[in-house]
Amino acid sequence: MPKIFKFTQFSLRDLIVTAGPATLLVIGLCFVAYWLIDPSPPKQVVMSTGQENSAYQEFGKKYAATLARQGIQVELRASPGSRENLKRLQEQDSGVDIAFVQSGSTEQAEAERQGLVSLGSLFTEPVWIFLRGNKKISELSQLKGLKINVGPAGTGVPQLFKSLLEVNNIEATEVRLGDLDNTPATVELLAGRIDGLVFSSAPDAPLIQMLLQTPGIQLVDFPQAEAYTRRFPFLSHVVLPRGIADLGKNLPARDYHLIAPTATLVAREDLHPALVDLFVQAAARIHGGASWFNVQKAFPTASYTEIPVARDAERYYRSGPSFLERYLPFWLANFFSRMWVVIIAVGALALPLSRILPPLYVWKVRSRIYRWYGKLRAVEQAIEEVPAERRAEVYQEQLQRLNEIEEKANHTSIPLSFAEELYGLRSHINFVRKRILWLTQGQ
Question: pTM for the whole thing?
Answer without folding.
Answer: 0.66
